[in-house]
Amino acid sequence: MSSEGDQGEGADVLYYWDYLHLDGLLNAQTPKSAEHGDVIHDELIFIAVHQTSELWFKQVLFELDSVLKLMDQDPIPERDLGIVLSRLQRINVIQRLLVLQLDVLETMTPLDFLDFRSMLLPASGFQSVQFRLIENTFGLLDRDRLRIEGHRYIATLRHDHVDLVTRSERSPSFFDHVERWLSRTPFLQTRNFDFVATYRDLVKAKHDATRSSLVDNPERLAVFEAGVSKFDAVLDESVWERDVEQGTRRLSYGAFMAALFINLYRDEPILHMPYLVLTAIVDIDEAFTMWRERHALMAHRMLGRLTGTAGSGYDYLDQTAHSYAPFKDLFDVATYLLPRASLPRLPDSLANDLDFRTS
Amino acid sequence: MSSEGDQGEGADVLYYWDYLHLDGLLNAQTPKSAEHGDVIHDELIFIAVHQTSELWFKQVLFELDSVLKLMDQDPIPERDLGIVLSRLQRINVIQRLLVLQLDVLETMTPLDFLDFRSMLLPASGFQSVQFRLIENTFGLLDRDRLRIEGHRYIATLRHDHVDLVTRSERSPSFFDHVERWLSRTPFLQTRNFDFVATYRDLVKAKHDATRSSLVDNPERLAVFEAGVSKFDAVLDESVWERDVEQGTRRLSYGAFMAALFINLYRDEPILHMPYLVLTAIVDIDEAFTMWRERHALMAHRMLGRLTGTAGSGYDYLDQTAHSYAPFKDLFDVATYLLPRASLPRLPDSLANDLDFRTS
Amino acid sequence: MSSEGDQGEGADVLYYWDYLHLDGLLNAQTPKSAEHGDVIHDELIFIAVHQTSELWFKQVLFELDSVLKLMDQDPIPERDLGIVLSRLQRINVIQRLLVLQLDVLETMTPLDFLDFRSMLLPASGFQSVQFRLIENTFGLLDRDRLRIEGHRYIATLRHDHVDLVTRSERSPSFFDHVERWLSRTPFLQTRNFDFVATYRDLVKAKHDATRSSLVDNPERLAVFEAGVSKFDAVLDESVWERDVEQGTRRLSYGAFMAALFINLYRDEPILHMPYLVLTAIVDIDEAFTMWRERHALMAHRMLGRLTGTAGSGYDYLDQTAHSYAPFKDLFDVATYLLPRASLPRLPDSLANDLDFRTS
Amino acid sequence: MSSEGDQGEGADVLYYWDYLHLDGLLNAQTPKSAEHGDVIHDELIFIAVHQTSELWFKQVLFELDSVLKLMDQDPIPERDLGIVLSRLQRINVIQRLLVLQLDVLETMTPLDFLDFRSMLLPASGFQSVQFRLIENTFGLLDRDRLRIEGHRYIATLRHDHVDLVTRSERSPSFFDHVERWLSRTPFLQTRNFDFVATYRDLVKAKHDATRSSLVDNPERLAVFEAGVSKFDAVLDESVWERDVEQGTRRLSYGAFMAALFINLYRDEPILHMPYLVLTAIVDIDEAFTMWRERHALMAHRMLGRLTGTAGSGYDYLDQTAHSYAPFKDLFDVATYLLPRASLPRLPDSLANDLDFRTS
Lengths: 359, 359, 359, 359
Description:
- 4 copies of one chain form a homotetramer.
- By secondary structure, chain A is mostly helical.
- The first copy, chain A, has one domain (40-353): Methane Monooxygenase Hydroxylase, Chain G, domain 1 (Up-down Bundle), CATH 1.20.58.
- Chain A has helices spanning 16-19, 22-25, 43-71, 78-105, 110-114, 129-138, 159-170, 174-183, 195-213, 218-228, 232-235, 237-246, 253-264, 272-303, 313-323, 328-331, 348-353; strands spanning 189-190, 193-194.
- A two-stranded antiparallel sheet of chain A has the order 1-2.
- In chain A, strand 1 and strand 2 (193-194) form a beta hairpin.
- In chain A, helix 3 packs parallel to helix 6 and helix 14 runs antiparallel to helix 15.
- The longest helix of chain A is centred in the last third of the chain and has 32 residues, at 272-303.
- Chain A is globular.
- Mean pLDDT of chain A is 90; it is low at 1-10 and 307-311.
- At the A-B interface, helix 1, helix 2, helix 3, helix 4 and helix 14 of A face helix 1, helix 2, helix 3, helix 4 and helix 14 of B.
């Protein structure tokens, strides 16, 4: 990228090379194979993919930390929501690049990898400190992590990194901030509008109507009842909270109902940005899964499924892809939506409150 | 990526972190804005995009250099052609990633960039030493480069880099190796087959037939003659070489005719790999143009077209996108193709020579 | 995609196949080569790429038309801006797919194309009625179109399509709606804030400071004056309007200054959505250019630069990529930005007006 | 895409519009919502994504069928392998586009989908006849398919499609052709080289060496023995064939050992193309999994996990992603590779046979 304008001069003129510390950066590739004889050509691409990934991980952490700082205000000023959104969207753009970056690694074939992979033992991508920090900061709970041969993930880390990672487990995560932000969503209950009660009435009426229509068809009625049992949790806060205790849900009832409200009434001006923020969160959670799935496929192709002490990388990665989704409750919003046509219009006074002063 | 197997132990156990030199790598981001007060948030993404790009540039150079070494054999053993192909294709996969990486930079807005861009002056992406090395190694000639305010590109480089870049200008480039490799293509002229003569006869016969059919339509005939004048260069080697002298073509006549032969007879077993190699070269040349075009668009959006002393970045980048294509002669192969149905079958003895011993 | 729930029954059960009219859709590929003998294999991929492109073009038109309808309200209700944004972003996602789709077409080689391309004459992608409708609806002016051998683009269309396309030239375009919407942006001039006057004062003060600092350096001063002459147009409305008359700018002065205001004060809550809408417009305009550039490259590779009566496809496409950008004024916003730190805070009463009633 | 040259004239001039049957194609979007009142805006994007997907499915089938025809020769002429490769690679490029195309569908939100999804019942993507044909032609076995509520997939198809799909189950698949082609690979056993015996000896020697080194470490020895038990199948053909009978492997022992040979000796000229073909097959199998995983994620986001009679679309799709991989044996090649340095050089006479006549 070029910059216009007057150029500096003299001894302390700034060079692109120095600004980017390229002397250090471009000398930090020291293939292990060099210690065993000739450099094995493909070890360099292996290093390049991992080093660029780590630079991106640093950037993701930097953006995530800045979002946490912005969300650590009570309330979060409306004007900061635009910044939160743009940084979340940036994280997602980086994630998509990281998925594509695995295409580059796949240009290394299993046979090429075999030529040096044993030289790297026991080093492994499992040890990416920054990726653990990202997971923890994003909101992954230790209780939801897979154990590796019965050990916690920190068992593989260098001593001085254990502290760092442990601290990140204990600090408020992005999930915690989103939970708090949603819980404080105003307007769900006002003088003349009670979203939760209204929503429950609508759901019950809809289900009763279906029941009536199926009264002569006990088989289909049974299927229907099995299906709608999922609604118990939104109709009865105590059911929801029991699910939370059992670990099958994670957002509090209030936070979830707020997310539902924002989705259903997303066209109200004051909900535009919260809706876009929720969408960005789901995009990010989804992209983590995509990356894990892509990573698992690549590991399968590169390593086969032969396992030594560490278990198959493929199986591990594939399982994490399916269980490491802190915001899966937001995916389940889709389960509980009602058609817009069946929603009541908001009372005028509330709709007015959700608009700009000057509209 | 995980690795199975027995784990090292003791003091010199290898950690992922140390193998990748992450202490150095992750501490090499020193935003200039920190010297002027608070760090400006978006300077970090600016650094991340440029540092990852430079790591990829190093990798591209590494692959390119290894290809040059393999091609610096006479003849190039058939078994090495598979390796050449895989490394060229890897370069192309990296290039495609670099194009997409500009999406990440575009998450930085012009207003964000404005907050720190003057602090970086006169540093500029123009100064990317590695990109200049890639251009030179790939085959860009200094005579084809745009001047920047009348200066050569090396004028902007740090003193100790000038030598390095100048040396790369003088070393045989990938273009030179491809030229030599094509020039030595066997089979164009054998005891009972003369590709060039055969091809010329076919072209002339085809043009004569069209002329006859247009004899009563002088207007369309004139248009036709204007169009086919492009064929003079393949019909007459001296015309081609004059174009080369004038700089409008660059491959020698012999090399170009070999490329044409490989394209037309690509289904012969011995030409499978040469054809895939030629395709990979065109893919790479095309991807350089895509990257320059994408870069120009981003510069336009980020900087507008206000120009200081350096000329508009957009205009410069956009012009390079259109003139920096060392292998544009290979794009022009399409101009001179003939329908397969009109090609003569190769004599049996030659077809036999182009096949495997054991077929 | 699956859907849950009770299944229909009986005679009018809906099949996926019938819903999508696949009988018609999958029988609409009639290769021209079949009329000349055997079907040429690659004609099918040629048809597939063009047919899917046309389905996407229809979708783009549909989204664009719906946006025009929403914007054809005065004023545009705030709640509709979210819908406008989501549809513009969808158009951009489709555009990015269309760029990638050209990778599929590039799996057809020039030699394969040569086998049937003359059978298609004079049919040509130039004749895509829907693409012309998209261009016109987006805002491309006939005066800015390249002539093809001196003829207007409609000269190549089927008779009954000429009317359709001509009508789209005469209807208000998306550009017209954006121009009107921007022109009506409130808050640029309030009782105690005059954005244009404030902005001009800042610019002048900044330029004067630079002039003073260069007073002893006439050479650099001259360069500076040449550079800042671009600001004449924003400092003096009559200069801007003269540029508009001469065709070098297109947005009115008022609309442009509103776009500048929205960019500079994008963090104010009421400007969040307008800012995102402006960003989406630039994304779309940029993606059109990307598609044209990618298309031009592919044409070069596929056809070479041999030209008959119609001129080289490459040259034509490449020129349109650089001149067909209705919103290029929005790219130039970057030229006129000022660092946020130099901007005055908005008066409290105005900032208050730009926020939600309930904040 | 433009075409040069002389233009047709008169009554039967060919128009782009007619060539592509755009009258039919662009009138084949009949939203179901129109029958229930106003068209719901997002039903159109739903139709567009599915129709373009079906056009691509047709193209994939067309390429696959042509590959089957080429492979249905005994032996497959070397010159046809280049064509097979290019068509397999084209299928992969289309698959990658299909994955990205789901980004477009995701611009439709769950709430938008809810507005019309019940109108489409019981139609469902499960009913895509062409996708079933692709799966069967590629080599998916009915025994490996998930049952949907106990029913076979053909239960959901329109009557006249059942036959078509059933026929495709019974015809030789791409898998069958690859199996046969691999089984016939020459050179695995020649007068002075026996690949299988050589390979087995190497593996046994390597394992014995490890056993010796672990003789004092019974714990690690046990882990090692558990790991290498995977090699029983390559060391003993009867073990392999028992796995095949039990359905955990599918390629015959001979075919698999040929694949292993091609991977290990891929640099021999005659194995260049077979190696690239094997790589393309793995790419395609992998891309099917990517598409299914991406599809599952989208279904989760769009539908939540509420299930009616049909089971959750997400769970179904996600399970197919993990079990529908006809060529998973080729992924497992990585498990059985040996480092190149440990492989014996081929005898000169064999290496000679694997080269071109004229080398």
